[in-house]
Amino acid sequence: xxxxxxxxxxxxxxxxxxxxxxxxxxxxxxxxxxxxxxxxxxxxxxxxxxxxxxxxxxxxxxxxxxxxxxxxxxxxxxxxxxxxxxxxxxxxxxxxxxxxxxxxxxxxxxxxxxxxxxxxxxxxxxxxxxxxxxxxxxxxxxxxxxxxxxxxxxxxxxxxxxxxxxxxxxxxxxxxxxxxxxxxxxxxxxxxxxxxxxxxxxxxxxxxxxxxxxxxxxxxxxxxxxxxxxxxxxxxxxxxxxxxxxxxxxxxxxxxxxxxxxxxxxxxxxxxxxxxxxxxxxxxxxxxxxxxxxxxxxxxxxxxxxxxxxxxxxxxxxxxxxxxxxxxxxxxxxxxxxxxxxxxxxxxxxxxxxxxxxxxxxxxxxxxxxxxxxxxxxxxxxxx
Length: 384
Description:
There is one protein chain. With about 375 residues, the chain is of the alpha+beta class. The protein folds into 3 domains: about 1-30, no CATH class; about 35-140 and about 225-260 and about 335-384, no CATH class; about 155-210 and about 265-330, no CATH class. It contains 12 helices and 13 strands. The strands form 3 sheets. The protein has an 8-stranded antiparallel sheet with strand order 4-3-2-12-11-10-9-8. It has a 3-stranded antiparallel sheet with strand order 6-5-7. Strands 1-13 form a two-stranded parallel sheet. A hairpin with a 2-residue loop joins strand 3 (about 80-85) and strand 4 (about 90-95).
């Protein structure tokens, strides 16, 4: 090696070395320069990009779902979901805090956004969900609906088939416990029979229902015992909608699996299964609650004693069948309840500058699906 740096070869060798160094510098600068959205090592960003195409290719890409009451995109627009597309798989991360906005994310790189998405999704299904149960709906995105909130208050139902007769009052005498599907969609009953929906808090004659906090505390107990799962890595399914010619895509319907963390109807199902294990006692409790009278003449000793007996029997059964099984009634209300979800990608395509970042993307039925443009000229398309 020494001979190349001595004598006549010295000058020529240094020139060659200098040229090689310059070539290497140019190569690595070009090879590693890319927009923040790209997961590859392309020399130049593509002129057009699409959610579907990026979801089906290698690399890492990040998209954001936001909504706007005023039909505009602004720095304060809250982020509901972050979609991370990585090597032909998609993960949907749920945001909890309402201060996660386009303005905040515009100043973050992909690594920072990913870390934030992971923390927010975990908060959504753990500590955030607990705060939702305790305090009501507070996060920007929540799986707690008004009906679910009532479930946390102990407003839970049991359904029955009744024989209409005078002994059972206006509701009739309960003769069979059924589930909600049978109640809502079951076949028509013959004359003289009907269906009824009763709240379990009204099934204890003469006593006040269980405290609301008992159900809330029980649900929270289940949450604390559950293990967090990162969002499912999955491929997407796509349906392309074309114009009348069949040649131009005008809309794309993307489907994938998502999940609800709180399903209040599960409580009704749990009560139904409890009732199946104790059919005769549940029916007795139902009928006691229907025949109990809250207005009794204190001078009518016979009627008063009958009512006291009914209420004592009801209290005993209520404690045995309901109060002692609160944890069973709230089981699986919280959990990863999977369902088929999706996005509809529409035009017009959008482009909005937020601070030093330009967001581009699609119009959705109620919001926008956006990503960070890699340069000033990059556009959106319906890619396949």
